C-alpha cells in the first residue's frame, strides 16, 4: 500500500523504469535487424523508426499516469461527498467542531502575527533596532539629548532616528475650519530616508527640514489620512493645516501602507521634531523613542555593550550631580535595551506576548480536542460501515484505495472546517478587539489573508491527517470474512475510541483549569481594595486651546464644574492631576524634618476630591475652598506615606515640599491605587491645586448618586456649551477604565473560558458517542442480563460506571499536564496559586458532571430495553 | 515515423482487444515481443506505431486488465513482462461481443446500400 502512495512522490524512479523499458525495446529491435544483416548504424536507425517517436510516447505515457490520479481523485471526492450527504448529522458535528477549533486558532494567530511577526513595510526591516528605555521612570521613551548622543555612534549604527509618541492633537484642515483630532508624530528629519519610505505625493522630510528649533512649519500626511480626510485631493500640497494651533504647510503624502513604526498607534500627520514646543533639550523630558539601522557587521552583543557604556556616561553627566540621593538613584537605574524593531515598536508587546503564547497553546489544545472528537466520530462511523467495508475488500478493493477514500473524506471535512473557521475567526477577531482598550489600533485584517490564511490552511490539512489517518487505518484493518460472517455491527472492544475519549477529557482538564485560574485571577483583581469606589465616578479630560490664558482656562473649567454639579443625579464634582487610572504621574521632592530629602509621587487636587472618588479620609479633612494661594500651605498624605515617613499621628506635622517650607498635614488619605489594580499604593502627597498651579490639565471627576453612565448625555451637552474650541475625552466611569486597563487579564479569562467550554462540549459529545455505541454493541449482553433478572438500575449503573471510569482516567492523566501548564502561566495569575486546589477540584467535578450528563441518555436507553425484543432481533 | 505506402492505422479501442488477445494466446510477454506479434498476426497490414503501445499498456494496467513485473528476456536483458488478468480475460469476451455487434450493424448498412 505504501508503495502506491509513495509512487506519487517517486515520479523520478517511474520515469527511469519507462526509459529502461523503451531502451530494451529498441535494443531488441536493433538486435533483430542486425541478425537480418543490417549494419549496426542502420539497424539502430531502423529500430528508432519502427518505434516512432520516443519522446512522444514518453509524454503520452506520463500524461496517462497523471490522468489516472486526477480521475481517481475526482471519483473519491464524489464518493466522499455522497457519503457525507448520507450522514448529515455526522458531517455537521465534524465540520462544526473543526470550524471552532480552526477558527479559534486563526483568530489568535492573526493577533499573534500582527503583534509579533509582521514586518514593517520599510526597507530592510530586519536591520532596524529600537533603543528601549527601562528602569527609572516610565519605559520606552527617552530624551532628545540622549538621542543626539546615540546618533553620534556611526560605528554601531548606519543611521539613528528620533520619533515622539503618536498623540491625538487638535487639527483643522485649514485655518479657521472646524476643530477635529488627528494623530500626530514628531520625527527627526532623516526618518523617511532611513526607513526607505518615499512620498506618494509631493515629498517627505529631509534632514534640512529639521534643523532650526520651531523653524519648519511643515507637515507630511499619512496616505490613509490623506484619503479619508482629504479625499485623495492633490491640491492638498501647499495647503495650510492647523495642528495644535500651529499653522503648517503640507509638503507631501507618505507612501501607501506606511502608518508609522508603532504597532498600535498610527500617525495621521508627521511634524519635524524641531517643531515640538517646550525645551526639547531638557534631559529629563522623555518624549523620544530612538530607532536605528544597525550596522550588520557589528554583533548585537557589541552594540548592547557599547550602548550600555554610552548610557552610563550620559546618565553620569546628566544626573551625577543631582543633590537628592533618591532621585539620583532612580535616574541612574535607567538602561537602554537594544531591541529588534523590524516588527515595529510597541508599548504593549511586553504585556501581550506571554498571554498570547498562552492563548496560542490553548487554541492548539482546543484544536487537538476538536480533531480527537472528529476522529472519534469517524471511528463510530467506520464501525457502522464495517460490513460495507468488508464487502468491498472481498470484492477486490485494496486497502490503499479504501484508506485513500477515507482520507479524501477527511480532507473534505477539513476544507469545510477551514472555511467555517475563517468565518468564525472573522467574528472572533472582532470579539477580541472588543476586549482591547478603545484606543488600541491593532492593524488586524478584517478577513484573514496572507500568512494568516496560509497558517489556517496548513493547520486544516494537518488536522485532516491527524483525525483522519488513525480511523482510516483502523476501520480498514479487518478480516472481511469474519466481519461478514458475524453479520452485526461492531467487532472487538473499541479501545481506540475509548483512548480518544480519555485524551479529550485530559485536554479538557487542562483548558478548564486554565479557564478557572484566569477567571479567579480576574475576580481577585476585581475585588482588590483600590482605596476608592469608581463605579459611579465619571472621569474626563478637558482640552483647551493653547492660546487661552490660564485664567480663561480656569474660568471655563469652573463654569463646567458648576454646571455639572447641578445636573440631576450628580452628587459632587472635583478635579485632580493625576487621578486614578487616568495616566500621567508627577513627582516632587519632600523633606521631612529629621530625615533625608526624597522624591515621591504628588497629586494636585481640588476640594471634595476624595468624596468624589468615593474614598473616605482616614483622618483629618479634605482641602477646602479656603485653602488658597494666600492661606497657610496644607497637604494630605496617604497611609503609605505616613507609615514610611511619619510614624505616629501625622496630622499637624509639617514637611517641606517642593521648595516650600512649613507645609502642614491636615489629612490622611486611604492608600489608593493609581496605575494598576495589582500594584500596591506608593507614598503620595496631595497638595491643593490652588496652592500648587501647574500646566498639566487635570482630570475632571463627577460622582453620581447612581448609574453614572446615564449622566453622560447631560455631560456632553454641558461640554458643548463650552464651545467648539474646547475638546474633551469621552465621559466614562473610572471602573470601566480600570476594566480596560487590565484587558490582557479579561482577554485571558474570556478566551480561556470559551476554549474550556468548547473542550468540555467536545468531550461530552465524545463520551456520549462512546456510551451510545457501547450500549448498541452490548445490547445482546444487556438483554441476556436483564432476562436473567438484572435490575434496571444495575444496568444504568453499569453504563454510567463505564463512562465514569474513562473520565476518571482522563482527569488523572490531565491533572499533571494542567499543573505544568498552570506553573508556566503563574506570572499571569493574580491572587491565586497555580496549584489552586479549589480550581482543580472544581474542574474534576465539572468534568464528572458533564460525563454524567452525556451518558445519562444512552444509559437510560440501555436500562429501558425490552430483553425479549432485543434477543429476538438478534 | 514510417513514411512508406499508406496502411490502415489501428482503430482506437481495437488495440486493447488486439493486445489482450495476444497476451491471452502467448502468456507473459514484453513490449517488443507484443509489438512483433501484433505486426506478424496482422501480416503487416496494420501500421502499429510501436511507441503508442506503452501508454496503452499503462492504461490497461491501470484498469486492471493486465499486470506487469520485471523479468529477464531470452537475450538476458532486464525487461518488463505483461500478463493478462482474470478481469482482462473477461474484457476480451465483452470486447469481442461489442465488436461482433458493430460488425453486424455495419454489414446490415452495407447490404442496405447494395440493394438500392
Description:
- Chain A is an alpha+beta fold.
- Chain A has 26 helices and 23 strands.
- Chain B has 116 residues and is an alpha+beta fold.
- At the A-B interface, helix 2, helix 3 and helix 4 of A face helix 2, helix 3 and strand 3 of B.
Radius of gyration of chain B: 16 Å
What structural class results from the helix and strand content of chain B? alpha+beta
Helices and strands of chain B, in order, run as HEHHEEH
Number of strands of chain B: 3
Strands of chain A, count: 23
Whole-number mean pLDDT of chain B: 78
State the end-to-end distance of chain A. 37 Å
Total helical elements of chain A: 26
Largest interface, per-chain counts?
Answer: A-B, 25 and 22 residues
Biggest sheet, spatial arrangement of strands of chain A: 3-4-9-6-8-7
- β-strand percent of chain B reads 5-15%
CA-atom Rg of chain A in angstroms: 37 Å
Helical residues, percent of chain A: 40-55%
Output the structural class of chain A.
alpha+beta
Averaged pLDDT of chain A: 86
Biggest sheet of chain B, strands in spatial order? 1-3-2
Entry summary:
Chain A is built from 26 helices and 23 strands. With 874 residues, chain A is of the alpha+beta class. Chain B is elongated and about 55 Å long.
List the helices and strands and how they pair.
The complex is a heterodimer of chains A (about 850) and B (about 120).
Chain A: H1 2-7, H2 11-35, H3 40-51, H4 54-86, H5 88-117, E1 128-134, H6 144-151, E2 157-163, E3 167-172, E4 180-187, H7 191-195, E5 199-202, E6 218-221, H8 223-230, E7 240-243, E8 246-254, E9 269-272, E10 289-294, H9 300-319, H10 325-332, E11 335-340, H11 349-384, H12 386-394, H13 399-435, H14 451-476, H15 480-486, H16 495-526, E12 537-543, H17 550-565, E13 570-577, E14 587-591, E15 598-605, H18 609-612, E16 619-620, E17 634-638, H19 639-645, E18 654-657, E19 660-669, E20 684-688, E21 699-704, H20 712-721, E22 727-728, E23 732-733, H21 734-741, H22 743-777, H23 779-787, H24 792-824, H25 837-863, H26 867-873
Parallel strand pairs in A: 4-9, 6-8, 15-20, 17-19
Antiparallel strand pairs in A: 1-10, 1-11, 2-10, 3-4, 3-7, 5-8, 6-9, 7-8, 12-21, 12-22, 12-23, 13-15, 13-21, 14-15, 14-18, 16-19, 17-20, 18-19
Helix pairs in contact in A: 2-3, 4-13, 5-11, 5-13, 5-14, 11-14, 11-16, 11-22, 12-15, 13-14, 16-22, 16-24, 16-25, 22-24, 22-25, 23-26, 24-25
Chain B: H1 14-26, E1 29-30, H2 31-41, H3 53-62, E2 66-72, E3 78-84, H4 86-115
Helix pairs in contact in B: 1-4
Amino acid at each position: 500500500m505504501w508503495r502506491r502512495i509513495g509512487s506519487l512522490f517517486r515520479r523520478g524512479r517511474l520515469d527511469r523504469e519507462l526509459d529502461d523499458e523503451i531502451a530494451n525495446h529498441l535494443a531488441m529491435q536493433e538486435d533483430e535487424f542486425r541478425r537480418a544483416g543490417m549494419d549496426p548504424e542502420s539497424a539502430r536507425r531502423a529500430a528508432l523508426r519502427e518505434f516512432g517517436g520516443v519522446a512522444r510516447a514518453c509524454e503520452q505515457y506520463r500524461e496517462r499516469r497523471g490522468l489516472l490520479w486526477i480521475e481517481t481523485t475526482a471519483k473519491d471526492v464524489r464518493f466522499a461527498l455522497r457519503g457525507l450527504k448520507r450522514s448529515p448529522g455526522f458531517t455537521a458535528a465534524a465540520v462544526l467542531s473543526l470550524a471552532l477549533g480552526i477558527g479559534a486558532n486563526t483568530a489568535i494567530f492573526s493577533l499573534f502575527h500582527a503583534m509579533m511577526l509582521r514586518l514593517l513595510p520599510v526597507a530592510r526591516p530586519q536591520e532596524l533596532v529600537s533603543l528601549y528605555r527601562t528602569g527609572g521612570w516610565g519605559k520606552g521613551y527617552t530624551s532628545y539629548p540622549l538621542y543626539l548622543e546615540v546618533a553620534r555612534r556611526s560605528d554601531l549604527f548606519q543611521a539613528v532616528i528620533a520619533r515622539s509618541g503618536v498623540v491625538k492633537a487638535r487639527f483643522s484642515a485649514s485655518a479657521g475650519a472646524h476643530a477635529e483630532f488627528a494623530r500626530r508624530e514628531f520625527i527627526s528629519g532623516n526618518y523617511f530616508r532611513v526607513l526607505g519610505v518615499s512620498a506618494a505625493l509631493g515629498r517627505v522630510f529631509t534632514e534640512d527640514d529639521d534643523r532650526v528649533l520651531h523653524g519648519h512649519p511643515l507637515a507630511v500626511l499619512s496616505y490613509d489620512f490623506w484619503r479619508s480626510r482629504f479625499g485623495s485631493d492633490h491640491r492638498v500640497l501647499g495647503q495650510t493645516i492647523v495642528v495644535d494651533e500651529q499653522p503648517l504647510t503640507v509638503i507631501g503624502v507618505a507612501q501607501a501602507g506606511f502608518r508609522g513604526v508603532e504597532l498600535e498607534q498610527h500617525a495621521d500627520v508627521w511634524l519635524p521634531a524641531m517643531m515640538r514646543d517646550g525645551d526639547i533639550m531638557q534631559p529629563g523630558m522623555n518624549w523620544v523613542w530612538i530607532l536605528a539601522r544597525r550596522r550588520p557587521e557589528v554583533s548585537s552583543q557589541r552594540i548592547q555593550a557599547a550602548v550600555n557604556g554610552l548610557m552610563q556616561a550620559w546618565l553620569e553627566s546628566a544626573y551625577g550631580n543631582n543633590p537628592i540621593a533618591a532621585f539620583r538613584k532612580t535616574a541612574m537605574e535607567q538602561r537602554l535595551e537594544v531591541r529588534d524593531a523590524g516588527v515595529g515598536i510597541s508599548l504593549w508587546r511586553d504585556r501581550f506576548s506571554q498571554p498570547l503564547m498562552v492563548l496560542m497553546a490553548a487554541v492548539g489544545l482546543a484544536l487537538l480536542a476538536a480533531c480527537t472528537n472528529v476522529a472519534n466520530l469517524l471511528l463510530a462511523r467506520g464501525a457502522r460501515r464495517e460490513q460495507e467495508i468488508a464487502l468491498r475488500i472481498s470484492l477486490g478493493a485494496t486497502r490503499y484505495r479504501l484508506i485513500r477514500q477515507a482520507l479524501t473524506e477527511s480532507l473534505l471535512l477539513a476544507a469545510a472546517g477551514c472555511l467555517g473557521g475563517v468565518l468564525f475567526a472573522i467574528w472572533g477577531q472582532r470579539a477580541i478587539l472588543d476586549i482591547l482598550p478603545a484606543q488600541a489600533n491593532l492593524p488586524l485584517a478584517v478577513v484573514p489573508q496572507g500568512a494568516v490564511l496560509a497558517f489556517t490552511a496548513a493547520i486544516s490539512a494537518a488536522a485532516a491527517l491527524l483525525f483522519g489517518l488513525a480511523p482510516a487505518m483502523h476501520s480498514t484493518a479487518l478480516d472481511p470474512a469474519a466481519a461478514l460472517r458475524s453479520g452485526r455491527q461492531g467487532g472487538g472492544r473499541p479501545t481506540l475510541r475509548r483512548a480518544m475519549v480519555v485524551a479529550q477529557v485530559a485536554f479538557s482538564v487542562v483548558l478548564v483549569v486554565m479557564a478557572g485560574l484566569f477567571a479567579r485571577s480576574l475576580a481577585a483583581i476585581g475585588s482588590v481594595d483600590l482605596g476608592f469606589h469608581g463605579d459611579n465616578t465619571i472621569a474626563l479630560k478637558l482640552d483647551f486651546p493653547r492660546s487661552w490664558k490660564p485664567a480663561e482656562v480656569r474660568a471655563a473649567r469652573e463654569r463646567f464644574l458648576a454646571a455639572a454639579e447641578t445636573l440631576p443625579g450628580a452628587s459632587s464634582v472635583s478635579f485632580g492631576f493625576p487621578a486614578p487610572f487616568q495616566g500621567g504621574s508627577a513627582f516632587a521632592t519632600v523633606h521631612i524634618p529629621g530625615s533625608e530629602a526624597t522624591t515621591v509621587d504628588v497629586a494636585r487636587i481640588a476640594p471634595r476630591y476624595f468624596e468624589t472618588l468615593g474614598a473616605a479620609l482616614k483622618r483629618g479633612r479634605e482641602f477646602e475652598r479656603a485653602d488658597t494661594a494666600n492661606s497657610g500651605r496644607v497637604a494630605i498624605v496617604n497611609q503609605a506615606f505616613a507609615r514610611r515617613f511619619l510614624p505616629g499621628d501625622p496630622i499637624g506635622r509639617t514637611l517641606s515640599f517642593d521648595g516650600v517650607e512649613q507645609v502642614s498635614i491636615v489629612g490622611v488619605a486611604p492608600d489608593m491605587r493609581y496605575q494598576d489594580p495589582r500594584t500596591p499604593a506608593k507614598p503620595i502627597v496631595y497638595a491643593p491645586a490652588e496652592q500648587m498651579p501647574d500646566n498639566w490639565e487635570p482630570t475632571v471627576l463627577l460622582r453620581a448618586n447612581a448609574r453614572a453612565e446615564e449622566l453622560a448625555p447631560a455631560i456632553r451637552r454641558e461640554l458643548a456649551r463650552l464651545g467648539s474650541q474646547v475638546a474633551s475625552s469621552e465621559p466614562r466611569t473610572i471602573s470601566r477604565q480600570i476594566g480596560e486597563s487590565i484587558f490582557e487579564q479579561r482577554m485571558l479569562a474570556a478566551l480561556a473560558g470559551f476554549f474550556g467550554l468548547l473542550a468540555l462540549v467536545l468531550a461530552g459529545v465524545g463520551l456520549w458517542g462512546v456510551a451510545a455505541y457501547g450500549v448498541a454493541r452490548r445490547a445482546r449482553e444487556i438483554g441476556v442480563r436483564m432476562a436473567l433478572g438484572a435490575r434496571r438500575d444495575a444496568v444504568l449503573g453499569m453504563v454510567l460506571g463505564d463512562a465514569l471510569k474513562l473520565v476518571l482516567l482522563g482527569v488523572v492523566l490531565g491533572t499533571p499536564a494542567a499543573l505544568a501548564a498552570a506553573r508556566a502561566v503563574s506570572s499571569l495569575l493574580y491572587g491565586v496559586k497555580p496549584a489552586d486546589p479549589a480550581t482543580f477540584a472544581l474542574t474534576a467535578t465539572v468534568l464528572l458532571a458533564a460525563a454524567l450528563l452525556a451518558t445519562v441518555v444512552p444509559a437510560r436507553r440501555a436500562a429501558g430495553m425490552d430483553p425479549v425484543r432485543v434477543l429476538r432481533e438478534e | 515515423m514510417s513514411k512508406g505506402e499508406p496502411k490502415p492505422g489501428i482503430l482506437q479501442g481495437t488495440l486493447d482487444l488486439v493486445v489482450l488477445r495476444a497476451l491471452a494466446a502467448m502468456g507473459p510477454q514484453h513490449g517488443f515481443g507484443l509489438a512483433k506479434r501484433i505486426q506478424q498476426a496482422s501480416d503487416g497490414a496494420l501500421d502499429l506505431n510501436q511507441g503508442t503501445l506503452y501508454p496503452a499498456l499503462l492504461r490497461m494496467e491501470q484498469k486492471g486488465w493486465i499486470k506487469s513485473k520485471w523479468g529477464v528476456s531470452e537475450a538476458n536483458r532486464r525487461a518488463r513482462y505483461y500478463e493478462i488478468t482474470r478481469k482482462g480475460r473477461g474484457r476480451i469476451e465483452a470486447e469481442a461481443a461489442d465488436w461482433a455487434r458493430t460488425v453486424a450493424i455495419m454489414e446490415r448498412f452495407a447490404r442496405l446500400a447494395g440493394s438500392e
